[in-house]
Amino acid sequence: MGVLGAEETRLFQTMAGYRNRMVHFYDEISDRELYQICTHQLGDVERVLDAILAWLRSHPDRVEGTLE
Length: 68
Known about the structure:
Blueprint: H1 6-24, H2 31-40, H3 42-58
Helix pairs in contact: 1-3
C-alpha cells in the first residue's frame, strides 16, 4: 500500500512474527531474550513507527482526527 518501504516492511513482518510467538509460545520466551530485544532492537520499532507517522503526516486527508 506504500505506507512502509521495503526494509520497514521486513522489520514489521519480523515484529509481527515475534508477536505471534509471544502469544502462542509465551512459555518458551525467556526474560533474557525479551530483555535483549527491548534493549538492542528498540531502534527497529522506532524506525517502523517513524515511517508510519511520516506517511500519516503526508496524507492528512486519510486520517480521522489528529495525530497529536
